[in-house]
Amino acid sequence: MDFPFSFNEKSSLLLIFFFHGMVFSFLLLRRGIFNQNSSNKWLSFLLFLCSLYIAPYMLGYAGWYSKKVTSEILFFIPFMQVLVIGPMVYFYIQSLLNPRFQFAKKDWFHFVPGLLYLGYSLVVFVTDKLVLDEFYFYSDYRDKDLKTWYQLLGLTSMLYYLTMSLKKYRFYKKVIFNVVSYADSILFRWIQNFLLAFLALQIIRVIFFFSNPQWEEFGSQFWYFISFAFILFYISVSGYTQAVKSSLLLGEIEEDRIEEEPEKLSMNSKELDKWKAQIVSLLEKDRIHTNPQLTLSQVASLLNTTSKNISTAINNGFEVNFNDLINHYRIEAVKEKIENNEHLKTTLLGIAFDSGFNSKATFNRAFKKSTSLTPKAYIDSLK
Asked: Model pTM?
């Protein structure tokens, strides 16, 4: 009896990535269930779909399309859920940005195209196998998953949801800089790298799609799928090992602040001056900027007012966001200590931590942004 999988260079290589994706999908799902972490679950589902996406080509190169039983498995099982991958990316990004995110009934709307394709696949199966007992939809012996119209719809869907995900991330950055003083620490690079990886997938897909006019045939598509597999490998490993501090994300933002646009709010000059003076007093006398976990809501609580008032006062009165204002005072504190030669008694990083910074990278970025110099260059300029 012949082994149902023909091992060769192409099928074996894709099999490695397929198995790898499935393993990490299981591990992420397991971790997501145990830790009650929705972002791990969304990434698990995404990796599962991406692994299935390469399955027809892995199995095709293994000879499945040339045998009746195995070819019908590929024909009637919709492995390539290209209309579902985009929404999965979108909800994964939302779950990363907002630990409070919950999938609502209205969100099922995003999966309607994918569900319609599943319904179409079911109709094809029932008609060809149960009703007619002969190929009607599959009279051309071409896998429906590989049809140009379906692949183009999938590409359009993925590009749309990539755009939506980028908008969410830009909004997140805008909001987070207005509510916490450690924004640089939680604007983690994983989201940026993940979106770049997903963008790379779409660019590669467009290039191979238009460079190979016979997309429905295997042709030169191996190089596209192996490129896809390598990016899938990166996403799965990095996504699993990434230490995401979800408790420091939008969970710190008050629910009634998430949809606000603070710079559009207004305040009369008398009230603005009052709040500015009180904020400056907290910074200069109470030195609240030395708290590395300082948030807008904490400042509002100290002044017995709302976060909205403090955010408006900072945006309109100081013309900077909350994060930059606090970092300005932290940098000034560092500069004062350097001028008093405290850097000769302790480390520069120790001075930065005492001034309210919580990481070396954040301190270096903030210092250069404020002074146009690195901390070392600034010290040398004082000699």
From this structure: 0.81
